[in-house]
Amino acid sequence: MSEPLLRVEGLTKHFSTKKGLLHAVDNVSFTIDKGRTLGMVGEPGCGKSTTGRAILRLLEPTAGNVLFDNIDVRSLDAAKLRRMRTRMQIVFQDPFSSLNPRMTVSQAIEEPIKLHGIITDPQEREERVLELMETVGLAPRLFNTYPHELDGGRRQRIGIARALAIEPEFIVCDEPISALDVSIQAQVVNLLIKLQKELGLTYLFIAHDLSMVKHISDRVGVMYLGSMAEFADSDELYSKPLHPYTKALMSAIPIPDPKAEKEKKRIPIEGEIPSPINPKPGCRFAARCKYATEACKQTTPELTEVLPGHFVACHRVKEVNA
Length: 322
Ligand code: SF4
Hints:
Helix content: 25-40%
Low-confidence stretches: none
Number of strands: 12
Strand order of the largest sheet: 6-7-8-3-9-10-12-11
Distance between the termini: 35 Å
Mean pLDDT: 92
Strand content: 15-25%
Structural class: alpha/beta
Largest sheet: 8 strands, mixed
Shape: globular
Bound molecules: iron/sulfur cluster
Order of helices and strands: EEEHEEHEHHHEHEHEEHHHHEEH
């Protein structure tokens, strides 16, 4: 039986702004088993990327615990955190802006190996760069090319090779396909799946494309306005969504069969996402939820296990699914 490599408990990240306290992430908890993928979905601004960055302490969490391999990541000093970062890496959304335009492909991949002092011999480093290029499907002829000479898919492969260069166990894939053409998205996701099988990697895969998240994830968490609304095994969540927000999200996934797509009932979500600055008490989804009662606006629903391994934050989950 696999065991959690990552435990996130009550993770919270607030930002002070001129208008008040921005609740980017509030009390989010989950685990990811070794060699597995947790998909995290939700609309832009729901806190999923902030969660990924707070886990790696690229943003300092406001509260909560992050345990990686039973090590309390929040208690690490700068030197220990630096060492920990060789085990936990990130692949960014926009491969172009995350790469230095003045570095060639080989220099970009070599950089983290040099920075962390993993291989000191230049000849050995070059061999390792070529090996990494092969691993991520970059032809050796691209060794001395620059990022602007490549398409988005190849640039993202450089980003993945950089993350792999220091042999991490865990990678936060922060919207790694959102900036790519649809035709290339599946290639990158399939590459991540292949690497996971070969190297035993563990992923937090953040995206808003629900079909891609289903394809890669073992479990999925649905975020709404900084909180986790629902969390379950991928197949279960997609076949039996229980939270009103998840139900609406799932109903919007296009079905390849035109007849079924025409007959499908789409659940609209009325209204705008409320501001995350000084949010009102109660359920974050209340302003847009057709099942909301006065009680929903007073008390914040806890994420509760309503079926084995299936967690929902909704006071009225029974009525919603009656
Ligand atoms: Fe809707 Fe209330 Fe459930 Fe929130 S707690 S999702 S407002 S029914």
